[in-house]
Amino acid sequence: MWTTTLVSDPENVVCCRYPGTGEYDKFFEEGIYTCAGCGTPLYRSTTKFNLGCGWPAFFEGLLGAINRTPNPDERRVEITCAACGGHLGHVFKGEVFPTPTDEHHCVNSVSLKFVPGNVNPSS
Fold first, then answer.
1. Burial, 116: exposed, middle or buried (Cβ in 10 Å; 0-12, 13-18, 19+)?
2. Is this model's pTM higher than 0.85 or not?
3. 9-27: b or e for each residue (b if 16 or more CB lie within 10 Å)?
4. How many other C-beta atoms lie within 10 A of the C-beta of residue 107?
5. CA 82 to chain centre
6. What average pLDDT does range 91-101 have in this prediction?
7. Which residues, in sequence order, are CB contacts of 60 under 8 Å at separation 6+?
8. Cα–Cα distances in angstroms (integers) from residue 37 to residues 3, 27, 51, 103, 111, in the given order
9. Which positions are annotated as active-site residues?
10. Burial class of 67 by CB neighbour count within 10 A (0 to 12, 13 to 18, 19+)
11. Which among 35, 13, 20 has a CA at the least distance from the CA of 79?
12. DSSP for 36-105?
């Protein structure tokens, strides 16, 4: 399903590649960001921050929701949805970000869907 969605709408994929054009770059509502491919919850809005890079930036994903695969160049790490394997973006660490984890997940808006509401539904 995920591959079919991307291939059937190539214009949407191209748009996500340009900085500042994604739907969630400057979006800061309370809720959960889920995988656009399968609906798996990936990020809480409380972990999103304004890095100014032109793509949504998060400092931490939900436990077990995101796989990390180092790129061959060893300069960055690809992140994918643990449930469906959909490409989310890349994670960068050790660049002295003002976050609790000193890393940022640079995520393509097209790979996300936002679900508004309480980020801690059990509390």
1. exposed
2. no
3. eeeeeeebeeeeebebbee
4. 28
5. 12
6. 85
7. 43, 47, 99, 100, 101, 105
8. 8, 20, 25, 24, 7
9. 106
10. middle
11. 35
12. TTT--EEEEGGGEE--SSSS-EES-PPTTTEEEEE-TTSS-EEEEETTT--EEEEEEESS--SSTTSEEE
The token pair at 77 is: 């790490």
pLDDT of res. 18:
58
Confidence of residue 95 (pLDDT cuts 50, 70, 90): confident
pLDDT tens column, 44-87: 999 998 877 778 999 999 999 999 999 888 778 999 999 999 99
* Residue 57 near residue 49 (C-beta atoms within 8 A): yes
d(CA 15, CA 107): 13
17 or 41, which is more confident? 41
Residue matched to tokens 């889920």: 34
Residue 19: helix, strand or coil by DSSP?
coil
